[in-house]
Amino acid sequence: MGSLATNTSENVEVINHPTLFFPDGDIIISCHNKKQQEVHFKVDKAEDVAKLLNAIYNPATLTFRRHDPDMPVKATKLMRLAEKYEVESVQKIIINHIKSEWPRNVYEWDVLQQEIKNVARNYDECEAPDINDMFSKPAAALRFAMEFDCPSILPAVLYTFI
Q1: Within this chain, do residues 64 and 112 fall inside the same structural domain, yes or no?
Q2: With 63 labelled, which of 4, 53, 99, 159 sits at a CA distance of 20 to 30 A?
Q3: Are 54 and 37 part of one and the same domain?
Q4: Are residues 70 and 137 in the same domain?
């Protein structure tokens, strides 16, 4: 059940909607009902909603760097909101990018391994960054795949743990 508060500056009774007010949200949609009570619907964080709306209205802005090691982590909040509000177009873009990062067969695995070797060759031993910080991280991808039902990447992700 929603809580009740009084807005003394306007002398309007403020109530939280009994089923649509989420205490863990940061955006409050406020309107007046027939009794002139101000009803609040609290939803998700403003920056997360802004990213979702931007992805809906400007899908071309939803781009990810190839082999970004943190991509599954970065995309998780947006993916959760896209699932929550059933925005399939955004879900599809994210899932397709995740799938593109992981090989689906032996040939693609060999191509990825060669790509990793080529990147490593561009650095000498003194200045070489950790190669694991330059390519998709399997643990993050595994967690993403399990949470968002993306089983097609599991063989390649799990193979990296061997």
Answers
A1: yes
A2: 159
A3: no
A4: yes
* pTM of structure: 0.70
Give Cα separations from 32 to 22, 37, 40, 107 (angstroms).
18, 5, 9, 61
Whose tokens are 């009902």? That residue is 33
For 152, phi then psi, to 5°, come to -65, -20
CB atoms under 10 Å from CB of 82, counted, come to 24
Dump pLDDT digits (tens) for 62-103.
Answer: 888 888 888 999 999 999 999 998 999 999 999 999 999 999
Q: Print the domain residue range for 71.
A: 46-159
pLDDT digits (tens, 9 = 90+) for 138-159: 999 999 999 999 999 999 999 9
Residues 53 and 99 in one domain: yes
Looking at the structure of the chain, the number of domains it has is 2
In angstroms, rounded to a whole number, what is the distance separating the alpha carbons of residues 94 and 39? 35
